[in-house]
Amino acid sequence: MDERPASAILSEPAPSVGTVWAAGVLLETYGLRAELTDLRSERDRNFLATADTGRQVVLKVSHSAENPSVVAMENAAMDHVAQVDPTLAIPRLVRTRDGSATVPVKAGDGRSHVVRVVTVLPGVAADCLDVPRGFADDLGRWSARLATALRGFFHPAGGRAIEWDPRRVHELQPYVERLDPSRRDLVAGVLERVVGIGERTASLPAGLLHADVTMSNVLVQDGAITGLIDFGDMHHTARVCDLAITITSLLRVVAATGGDSWQASARVLQGYQRTIPLDTSETELIGELVLARLAATVLISAWRAPENPDNHEYLTGLDAGSWLLLDQLTEFAPEALASRFMGLCGTSRVRSGQRPDPSLIDRRRTVLGGDVAPLFYQEPLHIVRGDGPWLIAADGRRYLDAYNNVAVIGHEHPAVVSAIVGQARVLNTHSRYLHQNIVELAERIVATMPEELDTCLFVNSGSEATDLAWRLAVTSTAATGGIVTNCSYHGVSAATSPLSSNTWPNGYQPDHVAVFEPPHVRPDGSAPDHREARQRVDAAVAELALQGHRPALLAIDPMFTSAGVLTPSAGFIAGLVDAIHAAGGLFLADEVQAGFGRGGHALWRFLDFGVVPDLVALGKPMGNGHPIAAVVTRRAIVDRLSAKDEFFSTFAGNPVSSAAGLAVLDVIDQEGLTARACDVGDYLRGGVAILADTHSALGEVRGQGLIAGIDIHDAQGEDRSLTLAVVNRLRDLGVLVGSTGRRGNALKVRPPLIWEREHADVFLEALDQALTDLGRSSGRRGDLNP
């Protein structure tokens, strides 16, 4: 058979030199007198040299067809790793007597070879031993560690082609005919299924990599890996190719010994990802790259073994395990194999969650309580990705998020993602151990508060924050009553749902909770003041007394978001504080919706009113989507609780959540998002006011900073159904908003604080179009009876 791969390295025989010749070279060039023994090798000749002093080195005689620049690259790579990670055990180059890295020598057969000497590492090649316990995890760690050390290494010879590269397996197609006839179809099928594997890896993370961290090149002693050797196959490749080569090598041994290949794969991948997290686009290719490497192994063996009978045993030593593994893995279709490896890497849910699934609504209703957990919009959205101010659906359509204050600094902000991933790779545990993150986050938050608020207690959600605030208030005051506004929302727990008047069924009111009217501006333009605030609270206190309760807590959302987004006077809020204190209760500023700069003037909305709450609840945006919340209060209030009980929440303030919280504060501060909220919010509300000149359905526009409540009404007045129609039409036009207000007749516009004016323009154009479309349905532009 004449057709062969281009490389002469695998086509020509290994150097024809013996131990006597090698000993002479060693003595003449390096000044070392030693006894030499042969070491196994695929295409070079390696000798273990033991001097009289006991010193040992390895003399390496490179193949005559090897490009000297490739040898220079290997030497440079070893030097690079030694500098970048000095503790990583790899061979070190030994210089000749004149200081050279290599020396050219001509052998007895007339061929010239590059000779060099490297140090010896302790241990035995792993393929000569039973796989030690814990080896697979360590193999993954060492492979990733070497790949990390080689980052930034460059050499002109790195672009060389090498037949062992799984991406080039199709170049070995001619040797399928040399396989046993019963095996040809199997390998031909593998070659067919991995067509295009090179193109699929072209955009993946890549570099100059060892590409041969295999069982024969990993040294083991006393059950532990002691070193990595042989840089002879290094070339520029995708890092997942480098990893697949390592996995393949281990799985051959596992398969040959009847072990669990999937468990071994999982261990390698766990060890590897402790240093280098893998992308979904990488993990979906691992299985196919393993198959490609296995196919390359048996094809190179079929090619080279008959032509090198003296090295037949070594060249065919991988065949048995390769065939076993090929049989096992080809039972999986490509998608199934990809899913298996992605599952082991923890990336399968990322990919599967991005696919359209028509059954998802029915599945959700079946297992998530049906109507108890309703979805937004008449046509629910299947959102699979976030990108700053945008949300992307499974069908690929982008929607401008004008509603979600959870992602306060934008969806999937890289700073938060990096903080979460980086900390999760190191440690995540509860807060009963000392850790820097939770302490620093508490210090950062307390520093933004009035001096009196000196203590921070972490929880996991806004509901838990208000729940804890209620517990602190009840314990501190020995009272049992709560006071909230009509149309308020403070949580979903057993303690906080009674404080959420917005969710009460018609005609229901807990007997330990009294309500007062939020500070709506009257038709004549006047607004409730300090005196009227006190009157409303006094009336609520009297109402509680009739039920046998004294007030423990008065809770407000300083934005009065659920009431339609209101901007009360400082005097009104001060009146609430004075009145509840006079009645013996505590004042809670629930900043779960209003906080983290949304008000535009300060990080916390209550600061705009010049009051000092007894308790502040933080939640939703605190981790930009990661569950973390907190209560900030006075130490004296906490001490009253600790005198009777202790407080602990397993996940609250864990290192990962705290890292997310710190990143959010950093971004808000460094990107000036609080000030931007003022600018963009004023621009947005001004634009709505201009639209109101054209669309009579637009009523009052309220808000401060980057939040707006926009009343919608028909010719007869307020109309919730019209508001919902506008919300759903905006959704059709690619803009997501919610509704709010005591009659549900106001649009709630509460976008991420990273909005620019251009995003406000997108919203305004869509609102104009939605109102126009709904107006035309009734035949008149300004009359929006749908």
Short description:
This protein is of the alpha+beta class and 786 residues long. 39% of the residues lie in helices and 16% in strands.
Keywords summarizing the entry:
786 residues; alpha+beta; six-stranded antiparallel β-sheet; 27 strands; disordered N terminus; disordered C terminus
What does this 3D model show about the protein?
This protein has 786 residues and is α+β, with helices and mostly antiparallel strands. It is built from 25 helices and 27 strands. The strands form six sheets. The chain has a seven-stranded mixed β-sheet with strand order 15-21-20-19-18-16-17, sandwiched between helices. Strands 1, 2, 3, 4, 5 and 6 form a six-stranded antiparallel β-sheet that branches. Strands 22, 23, 24, 26 and 27 form a five-stranded antiparallel β-sheet that branches. Helix 4 (135-149) packs antiparallel against helix 7, helix 4 (135-149) packs parallel to helix 8 (261-273) and helix 23 (673-692) runs parallel beside helix 25. It is elongated and about 110 Å long. The N and C termini lie far apart (79 Å). Residues 1-6 and 777-786 have low confidence and may be disordered.
